Amino acid sequence: MKFNILVADDEMNIRRGLAMGLADEGYNVYEAGNGLEALKIIASKEVDLVITDLKMPEMTGEELLKNITANYKNIPVIILTGHGTIETAVETMHNGAYDFMTKPLNLDHLFLIIKRALSTRQLILEHNELQAQVEKMKASSNMIIGKSPKMRQIMETVEQVAGTRASILLTGESGVGKEVIADAIQSLSDRRDKPFIKVHCAALAEGLLESELFGHEKGAFTGAIARKKGKFELADKGTIFLDEIGEINQNVQIKLLRIIQEREFERVGGEETIKVDVRIISATNRNLQEEVEKGNFREDLFYRLNVVNINIPPLRERKEDILLMATAFMNQFAKENNKEITAMDSKVMAILYNHPWKGNIRELQNCMENAVIMCRGNILTVEDLPFAMRKEAGDNYVKIRLGTSLDNAEKTLIMATLDMCKGNKSKAAEVLAIGRKTLHRKLDEYAEN
Questions:
Q1: For 83, which DSSP code?
Q2: Would you state the pLDDT for residue 347?
Q3: What's the domain range around 22?
Q4: Do 216 and 258 sit in the same domain of this protein?
Q5: Within this chain, do residues 354 and 305 fall inside the same structural domain, yes or no?
Q6: What parts of the chain have a pLDDT lower than 50?
Q7: 380 and 414: one domain?
Q8: Could you tell me if 160 and 295 lie in one domain?
């Protein structure tokens, strides 16, 4: 994507020189001699970032900034100023400017600010697009939220198999959303209006699971004071979802295999054979093939359950879906807690995108619920995130004291980045968004001094 940058400065030499430098960096550049000209360009062109001088005739940089922040909220503005007006420039930061630089300009530093500002704008635009996508998904019958290639492939598979009677095995780490996929399959199947029974196999004691699934007769065991229908009987003509199927014992495995093959079973302690028509969707975070090899899971049952396998990848392998799901959770919890939260700021989006999410969607859901509850305004900020996540993000920041010269601040940032990249200069240059030659030149300067 080629970004469009508007340079507004009444000093032609500075404006033209900066425009040429930006063009060499690959940007499209518009020029304006004052604030009024700049506004006309913004109104008629697609502008991604504005660089403006403070002191200009007809309309000052301050007035231009106020107009942009009021009418074009997602366009970052970088203020250029002489040494005598730094206090005014700092004030503009409070009024919405992205950053400011003093003249004469350090182009390497300016280009670094520009790249970060454009990254922020890109995040905001993506967030707006995410909101639109979430609203579109809410309006459709599709319950799966995701735009990554892996999730699109899963959606296609779900649509393809939903209308069949085939047994489906959902695999993946804990918290990746296996139950959501099961819900989507059920909602698209011709059994959508029939019973949909969910059983968490790992939550039930070994002795109770058989009774829970198949029911029992009165007196079948101590405490069985009345006949009880099991989940399979209740799910007749519908679907049963067996979560954590890898936890069931051999006895239950045998009865489950019989249901799949013969579509019949007896209650615990009973002799009556009960016929059922039930579609089975099962899920596990275990590798059932390995469990078969260990003798913990019946091979014949494994193949019966695994007619169609849908493997849901962990969140860290589909980063394109993180902000989309975070937006959906933000909207959900804002509504549940009667809060008017419209967006999350760019720093929050960056932290969410880069977090490892070892707990997958479940961890993301918990994080967003916490953030919404803690949010005091209408935009989620870093301060609203859980403490552990804020601390983790803080470890990636460099602290620079106020009063530090720009050269020393730049040196601190470069050396810290080089340390983070374990001495890899190419990687450090990429992170800093500067050329390798520029990095080598600066390191040579530091060595000389």
A1: G
A2: 76
A3: 1-126
A4: yes
A5: no
A6: 141
A7: no
A8: yes
User: What is the dihedral angle through the alpha carbons of 323, 325, 331, 337, rounded to the nearest 10 degrees?
Assistant: -110
Q: Are 144 and 133 a contacting pair, CB within 8 Å?
A: no
Phi-psi bin for 189: left (phi > 0), alpha (psi -120 to 50), beta? beta
Residue that is last in its domain, among 313, 348, 379: 313
Instruction: Tell me the one-letter amino acid at 374.
Output: M
**Mean pLDDT score of the chain:** 88
CA distance 195 to 220: 26
- pLDDT of 38 reads 94
Chain mean position to CA 208: 39
Please tell me the pTM assigned to this model: 0.65
DSSP one-letter string for 119-156: HHHHHHHHHHHHHHHHHHHHHSS------SHHHHHHHH
- Of 265, 280, 313, which marks where a domain is finished? 313
How far are the Cα atoms of 37, 209, 351, 362, 363 from residue 357, in angstroms, in the given order? 47, 32, 11, 9, 7
| Bond preceding residue 104 cis, omega within 30 of 0 | yes
Closest C-alpha among 330, 325, 372, 349 to residue 137: 325
Q: Please, which residues have CB within 8 angstroms of residue 265's CB and are 6 or more apart in sequence?
A: 214, 232, 255, 258, 259, 273, 274, 276
CB 101 within 8 A of CB 79: yes
Please tell me the predicted confidence (pLDDT) of residue 81: 83
Residue 135 lies in a domain: no
Q: In whole angstroms, what is the distance from residue 143 CA to residue 140 CA? A: 8
Please choose, from the candidates 362, 360, 179, 188, the residue with its C-alpha nearest in 3D space to the C-alpha of residue 283.
179
Residue-level pLDDT at 412: 79
Render pLDDT for 366-394 as a digit per residue (tens, 0 to 9): 999 999 999 998 888 888 999 888 877 66
Let me know the angle formed at the C-alpha of 348 by 439 and 66, rounded to the nearest 5 degrees: 85
Which segments within 164-307 are labelled E, that is strand?
168-171, 196-200, 215-216, 228-229, 239-243, 264-266, 273-275, 279-284
Answer yes or no: do 239 and 357 share one domain.
no
pLDDT confidence of residue 101: 86
Distance CA 145, CA 167 (A): 23
CA–CA dist 388, 399 (Å, integer): 19
Domain count, the chain: 4
